[in-house]
Here is the input.
Amino acid sequence: MTTDASLSSLPPAPSWAGPMLRGLRRVGRVLAWTVLTIAALATVVPFLWMLGVAFRTPADLYSDPSRLWPDHWSVSGFHAVFTQLPFFRLAVNTVVFAGGTTVLLLLIDSLCAYALARLKFRGQNFVFWTILLTLMVPFQVMLIPLFLTVFHLGWLNTFQGLIVPRSVSALGIFMLRQFFVKIPKELDEAARVDGAGPLRIYWQIILPLARPALASLFVIQFMALWNDFLWPLVISSSTDMRTLPSALTLFSSTSGVDHAALMAGAAISLAPLAIAFLLAQRFFTEGIAATGIK
Here is the structure.
C-alpha cells in the first residue's frame, strides 16, 4: 500500500519524454541495421569478388583488380579446374575425409562427453579441465608429432592417415558434455531399473535426445574439415590423395599464379558447404542454443 501511494504521488512524466524515447528507439534501430548491413557487406563482397575473378581473364584482372565483375566473361578458370586436376577424385577424397572424420568424431566425442557428464569416476574434473586446456594448443604445435606418428605407422597417402588423427575434438567434447549435463538424471535411473547398462543408456536415451547438439557439431566440424588445407597437404604427397583445398596449391608455382583457376576451384569447393549449411541451419541454431554457447 505504501509503495502504491508513493508511486501515485510521483509527478507525471514531462510531455517531451515520450517523443524522445521513441526517437532513441528509432536511432537504435537505425544503428542496428547499419551494423548488420556493414557486417553483411563484409561477408558477401569477398565472396562476390572471388566469383568475379573466377570469370575474368588475366588481362582483365590485372587492369583493375578491385572491380567485382569482369568486362569480358571467361570460363577458362573452371575449364582449368576440370582439366588440369583429377577433380572428381579430389571431390571424392574431400567427401570421404570430411564426412568420415566427422562421423567418427561424433562417435568418439559423444562417448567421451557421456562419460564426463553422466558417469562418476575418480579424476573426472581433472580430465575435463585437461581437455579444455587442449583448446588453447594450436594444431600447428601438434603437426610434427602427428606427422611422425602417421609416418611410422605407414599411413602416409592413405585415408586412415587423413581421418584418424583428426577424429577427436576438444570443442566437440565440451559442447556435447554441456548438453548431456542438462538431460535429467531420472531418465538414467529409470533405464537402470529396467536393466539397461551404460552403453544402452548412451545409445537409446542420450543420443536421441542430443540430436540438435549432434547436428550443430556435425555442421561445425564438417565445414572445418572440408576447408582443411594444412593437414591433407602435409600428409599426402600424391595428388590422387589430396582434397580440393590442398590441391588448389597446384595453381600456384614459381612461374606465377592462375588466379582465375584458383578462385574457380575455391568457389566450387565452397558450394557444397553453403548448401549443407542452409539445409542444416535449423538444427545448427537449436544445438548452439541448447548447449548454452553464445
Remarks:
- The longest helix spans residues 17-54.
- The first strand starts at residue 252 and ends at 253.
- The two ends are 42 Å apart (CA to CA).
